[in-house]
Amino acid sequence: MVGLYCNSGKLPVRFPLYIGMLALARYLILDMCAIDDWRMMLSITVSILM
Asked: How remote is the C-alpha of 9 from its chain's centroid?
């Protein structure tokens, strides 16, 4: 991302959003059994808002 910013002068916003969505999906898939109900609802809400 730093290289893209230096070359183009524009800050890429899509890449951190993609990384965040993938991290959230991985978190939901791998820790499905250990997550409380309220934490799962919060994670799903955040993923929908993204």
From this structure: 24
Among residues 12, 43, 49, the alpha carbon closest in space to that of 26 is found at: 43
SS3 content of the chain, % helix, strand, coil (to 5): 75, 0, 25
Average pLDDT over residues 2-12: 73
- The predicted model scores a pTM of 0.52
CA 17 centroid distance within chain? 6
pLDDT digits (tens, 9 = 90+) for 16-34: 788 888 888 887 777 767 7
Distance of CA 47 to the CA centre of its chain: 7
